[in-house]
């Protein structure tokens, strides 16, 4: 399950970049927060896998 999340996170982040520019500012700020959370999760997963 951890490895699945680690593989899915970069794909999610890559697909998240495109629609951001076409959304309203309020939705963009929400997506920005979600992206930060996903980045944090991805780093934690990557750190846990290297340890």
Name the features.
about 50 residues; mainly alpha; about 90% helix; rod-shaped
Short structural summary:
The model has no long low-confidence stretch (mean pLDDT about 65). It is built from two helices and no strands.
Molecular structure report:
With 51 residues, the chain is an all-alpha fold. Helix content is 88%, strand content 0%. It has 2 helices and no strands. The chain has helices spanning 2-20, 25-50. Helix 1 packs antiparallel against helix 2 (25-50). The model has no long low-confidence stretch (mean pLDDT 67).
Low-confidence stretches: none
How many DSSP E strands? 0
Radius of gyration: 12 Å
- Please give the share of residues in helix: over 70%
Global structural class: mainly alpha
**Biggest sheet overview:** none
> Proportion of β residues?
under 5%
- Tally of separate helices: 2
End-to-end C-alpha gap: 17 Å
Mean pLDDT score: 67
The ordered H/E elements are: HH
Shape, principal axes of CA atoms: rod-shaped
